[in-house]
């Protein structure tokens, strides 16, 4: 598992470094995802083995972290105590916007997916 | 060593990272147990429960958020590598992407900007102030990336974290009744919408319904994180 964790940290480190060095408008870990997927594709092409399968170091490390992904949001989420008053004062507007926007996003996404899937089949 | 008084003990514990790190993990484990007891009803969300309980503890003990974060930062730090780890399921599902490349690309390009722009415009229309509404933009994106986007566009990442989790719960509760109402039986499409609109919480819900839906939801979560991060500077300009 440790070599897997190392690969994840290394991808994030390179991602953060490139983002900062070039001033890219992108979170470092996002570039890290792109680097990781490219690394896996190149490695499979060269060695012929799939380093992302769940039996590998990387597979173990990734599954372990993603299994408790929810826990990792808690420290940031608790930051709500700093703006609790502001959020509750605007509660109805925020909840209304979140509910309607989420429903709209679900409908738009599923409609476009179905439309294009039907078109590309026929 | 002579025994410390209860007050001295609290002074030591309250300032040490050990206390709040342990409280964070312990609260989450209890919240997870509650979710299990409810048979993973999306309304009983362990992340939201843990956040509310820890926040309440901080208020009751008059603990400053910075003191709390000194302990909790060890958990928070793992969010970076965990976000990178999303590349692993993405790579595992590459066959799925290849087979449905066209509908995936089209619905992603339509859904990602819809999620960001509609939330901010609706909240403004309902009269919420500017510093709150901007933090809504990445609300459909998985929290690790969403907080990165929030910092990029000048919004408060802790507000975004709470909006992200609330959105996840709304999507997880709404997706099945909504899709049944729309008479959509394609589980790839249903799952993709769930993951795009409500990230990991929607993905967890999709996996309960159907394995294909779950795989497409995880895919949508990762791809929407990537695309939203790329679109965020444009969106921020539109929202100025």
Question: Your description of this structure?
Answer:
The complex is a heterodimer of chains A (122) and B (240). With 122 residues, chain A is an all-alpha fold. Chain A folds into two domains: 1-67, no CATH class; 81-122. Chain A is built from six helices and no strands. Chain A has helices at 2-22, 28-47, 57-67, 69-77, 84-89, 91-121. In chain A, helix 1 crosses helix 2 and helix 1 crosses helix 3. In chain A, 41% of the residues are buried. Chain B folds into two domains: 6-77, no CATH class; 84-238, no CATH class. In chain B, helix 2 (17-37) crosses helix 4 and helix 11 packs across helix 12. Chain B has helices at 6-15, 17-37, 46-60, 65-77, 79-84, 87-92, 94-99, 101-125, 130-133, 143-152, 157-181, 187-209, 211-238. With 240 residues, chain B is mainly α. The mean pLDDT of chain B is 90. The longest helix of chain B has 28 residues, at 211-238. Chain B has 13 helices and no strands. At the A-B interface, helix 1, helix 2, helix 3, helix 4 and helix 5 of A face helix 2, helix 3, helix 4, helix 5 and helix 6 of B.
In brief, what are we looking at here?
Chain A contains six helices and no strands.
Task: Tell me the layout of helices and strands.
The complex is a heterodimer of chains A (122) and B (240).
Chain A: H1 2-22, H2 28-47, H3 57-67, H4 69-77, H5 84-89, H6 91-121
Helix pairs in contact in A: 1-2, 1-3
Chain B: H1 6-15, H2 17-37, H3 46-60, H4 65-77, H5 79-84, H6 87-92, H7 94-99, H8 101-125, H9 130-133, H10 143-152, H11 157-181, H12 187-209, H13 211-238
Helix pairs in contact in B: 2-3, 2-4, 8-12, 8-13, 10-11, 10-13, 11-12, 12-13
